[in-house]
Amino acid sequence: xxxxxxxxxxxxxxxxxxxxxxxxxxxxxxxxxxxxxxxxxxxxxxxxxxxxxxxxxxxxxxxxxxxxxxxxxxxxxxxxxxxxxxxxxxxxxxxxxxxxxxxxxxxxxxxxxxxxxxxxxxxxxxxxxxxxxxxxxxxxxxxxxxxxxxxxxxxxxxxxxxxxxxxxxxxxxxxxxxxxxxxxxxxxxxxxxxxxxxxxxxxxxxxxxxxxxxxxxxxxxxxxxxxxxxxxxxxxxxxxxxxxxxxxxxxxxxxxxxxxxxxxxxxxxxxxxxxxxxxxxxxxxxxxxxxxxxxxxxxxxxxxxxxxxxxxxxxxxxxxxxxxxxxxxxxxxxxxxxxxxxxxxxxxxxxxxxxxxxxxxxxxxxxxxxxxxxxxxxxxxxxxxxxxxxxxxxxxxxxxxxxxxxxxxxxxxxxxxxxxxxxxxxxxxxxxxxxxxxxxxxxxxxxxxxxxxxxxxxxxxxxxxxxxxxxxxxxxxxxxxxxxxxxxxxxxxxxxxxxxxxxxxxxxxxxxxxxxxxxxxxxxxxx
Amino acid sequence: xxxxxxxxxxxxxxxxxxxxxxxxxxxxxxxxxxxxxxxxxxxxxxxxxxxxxxxxxxxxxxxxxxxxxxxxxxxxxxxxxxxxxxxxxxxxxxxxxxxxxxxxxxxxxxxxxxxxxxxxxxxxxxxxxxxxxxxxxxxxxxxxxxxxxxxxxxxxxxxxxxxxxxxxxxxxxxxxxxxxxxxxxxxxxxxxxxxxxxxxxxxxxxxxxxxxxxxxxxxxxxxxxxxxxxxxxxxxxxxxxxxxxxxxxxxxxxxxxxxxxx
Lengths: 527, 262
Description:
Oligomer: heterodimer
Helix content of chain B: 10-25%
Helix content of chain A: 40-55%
Distance between the termini of chain A: 24 Å
Structural class of chain A: alpha/beta
Order of helices and strands of chain B: HHHEEEHEEEEEEHEE
CATH superfamily of the largest domain in chain B: Nucleic acid-binding proteins
Strand content of chain A: 5-15%
CATH topology of the largest domain in chain A: D-Maltodextrin-Binding Protein, domain 2
CATH architecture of the largest domain in chain B: Beta Barrel
Largest sheet of chain B: 5 strands, antiparallel
CATH architecture of the largest domain in chain A: 3-Layer(aba) Sandwich
Strand order of the largest sheet of chain B: 3-2-1-4-5
Distance between the termini of chain B: 97 Å
Structural class of chain B: alpha+beta
Strand order of the largest sheet of chain A: 2-1-3-13-6
Low-confidence stretches of chain B: 20-58
Largest sheet of chain A: 5 strands, mixed
Number of strands of chain A: 14
C-alpha cells in the first residue's frame, strides 16, 4: 500500500511542477560558453535604422560583408528601418513571440522596456571583459576597441540598473543652425553663445512687416523665426539648464510643477506672436531655414547635411533657395557659462537566444560595429561623432575634420562644424534617467509644448487652469501616473485571486500535514 | 492515520495541480507578468501619437462652404462637409483621409476615428468634419478634427479633372487635394525612400519642367497595383497619372494609378 501511495504522489508532484512551468516563455539567462565553436554556422539578424540616407545603408551592408569575410560561418541578415519608434514596436511585438532580432539599433529608453521581459536582453558586462572575445579580445579576428577606448559618457548611457545593456553606436546632439545674414540685417550681432532671450528677442523683431505686408527681413509672406524640431528635447533642455525637476532614476515623474508652467507660459507668448513654431506644426526647420523663412533652426547634428543653402541634401525647389550665411551654434542656454546639451543617437543591444553560440556570434558582430572602419565611415554621413577615442583620434578622422569646406558633400562645413560642436562639448552632454516608461515621459514633455503652441496660435485662453488640465491630459494620455509609482508601469495588483488563495492554502496545509506526520512518526518511534 | 494523511496529501496535491493548470488560460499572475508589463508600455507608447482631448473648440462654427473654408485663417476652427475620396491611413484611433465635393477638396490629417468608424468610411461617404485649419510644409489640411457620417446623404465620387495644363501655373494650388490626372508625362527618376516598404519618389517632366510625385506607402502600399506599376517604370517612359493633388514644399501629387503610353 505504501508503495502504491508513493507511486501516486510522485507523478502528482511531477504534474504540479509541469503545470507551474506550463505557459512560461522566459529565456534562461545567457552564460558565456566555455568554448565558442568558431566553425559552427550561425544566422543572425540585425535591425538597423538609417536616416533615409542611402550611404548609411551602404555602410551597414559593407560592414556586414566585411564581417562575413572574417567570419564566413556567420550570416548577418539586415532589416532596415527609418524610424526608431518602428523598431521599438516591432521588438516589443517579437518579444512575446520569442522572435526578437539578435542585434538591434535602439535607444536606452526603449531598452528599459525590453528589460521588463526577463533575460530577453543580454547584459554585456562579462562579454565586454572576456579575454578572448571581449572588447580587444585575443581571439577576435578584427581590431576591436578596448573598453577604455569607448568614450565614458557615451558608454555609461547604456548602463541600466547597474548593468551594461547597450553599447553606443553613434552620438549626436542638437545644434542651432542660424541664418547669420538675417540676424545682422535685423541689427543684432551674434553672441559667442546663444541664449533663449536673445533668440526670442531677434525672433520677435523679425516679425516686422513692410508696407506690402511682407516680412521686412526676407521680403516674403512666410517667416517663422524660431523653429524647434524636437520639442521633447526643447523641454528637457530647458529644465536641465535651469536645474529643474524632470524625473529621477526611480521613475518618479517630477515634471508637472509650477516651474514647467512658467516655461510653458513663456513659450506660449512667442507661439502666439508666431515668432516660434515646431516641426509638428509647421514642417521641417531645414526647409524654412533654406528658404530664408527661418532664422534659428534647432535640429539634431545628425541632420546637418540638410542645413544651409549649400547643403548637399535639399528638400525644397531650387527657386525657393535663398543665399545666406549659415552658422552652427550650441543650442540656446539659460546660463552660457555652464552650457548643457543632450547626448543622443543610436545604441546597440543584444537579445538573448537559446543557443549561447548564436549570442556569441551576435556579440562579435555587435563589436565589429565599433571598429574604426564602421565608426568613421558612418560618422561621416552626418554630423555624428564616433563613439570611440580610437576612431576619434585616428589619422583618418582627424584628417576628415580638418578638411572642412573642401567641398559641399563629404566635407560640407556645416556638417563638420556640427560634429566638432559635439566633440568640443562631450563633457557638457547629459542624458535623462532611463526607466520603463521614460520614453512616454519624454513624449509628454514635448507634447505639452506642441499643445500650448497650438492653443496659443488659436488664441485660446492659456492660464493656470489650462496648464492643470494639460498636466492631467498628459498624465492620462501617457499613463504617467502608473509609471510614477516606481518606474515599472505596474498597476496596483489588488487582492489575490481566489485560485492563488487556494493554492497558497494548499501549500500551507501540505506543510502542516507533513510536519504533523513527522512528529507523530517520531513519537511512535520513541514509544 | 497514515492512510488518512496520504489521502489528504493526494487531494491537496491534486487541487494544487488543477490550480496550476488554470494559470495558463487566465494569465493573471507572475508567470506572465513580463508580457503584461511590456504590453502596458506599448499601449502607453501607442497612445503617444494620440491627440489629447483638450476641448479646443471654443465657439460653435456653422458648416462652411468651400469658399469660406479657403478664406478662413490658418489655425481657425473650421467645419466642413465633404465626401470621402481616399483613405490614407488609420493608426491609434486616428485617420488620415482625402475628401471632396463639387467645389473643392480637403485633407484631414489624423482625425479622431475608431477602427470601426474607419471601416465605415467608404469612398463616396459624406462626412461632417470639425477641426482646425493648418498648413504643414505647404499642405493645407484640417487637424485635431472629429467627424460624423452624414446619414442619408447620397454618395459622391469625384471624377478626376485634367490638371495637365495647370502644371507650373498658379492655378494648380487652387485645386490642392483634388483628384486630378495628368497626361503625357515623362519619367525622369524613380527613387525608393527605403528598400521596399516605403514611399516611392517619382520625378516626372512635361515640356521641359520636372515635377515631384509620390507613391505614398500608407495610401497605396506594396500590395497595390499602382505601387507595382510605378516600381516597374523606367526612365523615359511616358505615362498618364491620376492622383490626389497633395503638397509638400510644392506640388507632390500622391499617385493612385498610372497608365503607360503605348
